Amino acid sequence: LYAMVQRGDGSVPYLGSAAAMSWYSDAIVTLTGAANGTLSSSAVTASGAVLDLNGHTAVISAPLSIQGGLTIRDSAGGGVLSASSGAIEVAGGSLTLQSGTVSTQDGTAIAVSSGSAAISGGTVEVSAAQPTGYAVSGTFTFTGGILRAKDGAHVTDMKVQLPAISDSGDG
């Protein structure tokens, strides 16, 4: 799996392995190449960064720590940011999910300890008996998209008004 980082002025400061990339402020990271692969789990301290899953499945080995600003979208459809134990931790930054799927097999898909997370589209999915998302001293807003709990998982500790909750019936 490769990542192409492109800034607003069209310059490309990085094109290479998605597992070794760094985050750049006000730049779009577009995944390309193999359909599945590893994405760098380095902390996102950049502001205005965008991750375009571009239809790919990016696996992270540790929760992605958002300390700056990150928007996740999927321009091609079918894209997934996947973690085996906890996917995203917002720690003083901001996360926006516009499209694509954030999935974890164990642990919390999106944890907000400080800062904010806004879900306006896409899917947040968890497959274990853990909460799908929560806010402790930060803000978690949900205005669209799907929260999916599978295999005995449940959606708890949500400090938002949910328009709908999807249970796939897998457990």
Task: Describe it.
Strands 1, 2, 3, 5, 7, 8, 10, 12, 14 and 15 form a ten-stranded mixed β-sheet that branches. A seven-stranded parallel β-sheet has the order 4-6-9-11-13-16-17, with no helix packed on it. It has 171 residues and is mainly beta. A hairpin with a 6-residue loop joins β1 and β2. It has strands at residues 2-7, 14-17, 27-32, 36-38, 49-52, 57-60, 64-66, 69-73, 80-83, 88-97, 101-104, 110-119, 123-126, 133-135, 139-142, 146-149, 166-167. It is built from no helices and 17 strands.
Characteristics of this structure?
171 residues; mainly beta
Calculate the mean pLDDT score and round it: 84
Work out the helicity level. Answer: under 10%
The major β-sheet equals: 10 strands, mixed
Radius of gyration over C-alpha positions, nearest whole angstrom: 15 Å
Shape assignment = globular
Based on DSSP secondary structure assignment, what is the total number of beta strands? 17
Described by its quaternary structure, the protein is single chain
N- and C-termini, Cα separation: 32 Å
Number of helices: 0
Order of helices and strands: EEEEEEEEEEEEEEEEE
Strand proportion: over 45%
